Amino acid sequence: MPQHIIHRGHNRQYIFKATADFEMYLSKLEYWSEEYAVQLHAWVLMNNHIHLLVTPSSDEGISEMMKRIAGSYGRYFNKRYGLTGTIWEGRFRNIPVMSSTHVEQIKAYIEQNPVRAGICGMSSEYRWSSAFSGRR
C-alpha cells in the first residue's frame, strides 16, 4: 500500500543548508530505497522537512529505509556543521494512501509544496523535487 511520509527537522530547524546537503540526502534516499525495495513515486526536499510518496515491497521496508536515511544523514549533517544530537523531530509520520485517486492527489500535494511556500512559480522549477523538469 502506498504511504505518504513526512519527516521534519527538530524544532523545524533547517535540515538542508547547502546544495551538497540536498544532494547527499537524495543519494541516501536512492541507495536505501533500492536496498529495501521501496518504490519512490514522488518526493520533495524542503529546507526543514521532506515529503515522500512510496510503496514498500515488505512490511518493514519503509521503517528500515527511513531509519538508515535518518541516521546516516543526521551523522553527515552534524559532522558538516559541527553539531551534536538529533536533527529530526522524532520518528517520521507515514499515512497510508487508500486509493489510486488519492495517490495522484498526494503526488500533486507533494510536488506543489515549494509553490505553496512561495519558493517558485511552478513545481517543475524546484530542483529538489520529483517534478523538476531539468533532471536528466
Fold and architecture overview:
Strands 2-3-1-4 form a 4-stranded antiparallel sheet. It has one domain: Alpha-Beta Plaits (2-Layer Sandwich), CATH 3.30.70.1290. The protein is built from 4 helices and 4 strands. Helices cover 40% and strands 19% of the residues. Strand 2 and strand 3 form a beta hairpin. It has 136 residues and is an alpha+beta fold.
Question: Brief overview, please?
Answer:
This protein is α+β, with helices and mostly antiparallel strands and 136 residues long.
Based on the model shown, name its key terms.
136 residues; globular; single chain; alpha+beta; 4 helices; 19% strand; Alpha-Beta Plaits
Strand order of the largest sheet: 2-3-1-4
**Approximately how much helix is present in the residues?**
25-40%
Number of domains in the coordinates? 1
Distance between the termini: 29 Å
Element order, helices and strands?
EHEEHEHH
CATH topology: Alpha-Beta Plaits
Structural class: alpha+beta
- Give the CATH level 1 class: Alpha Beta
Give the tally of β-strands: 4
CATH superfamily: Transposase IS200-like
Gross geometry: globular
Enumerate how many helices there are, as a single number.
4
The low-confidence parts are: none
Query: Roughly what is the average pLDDT, rounded to an integer?
Result: 95
- Rg (C-alpha, Å): 14 Å
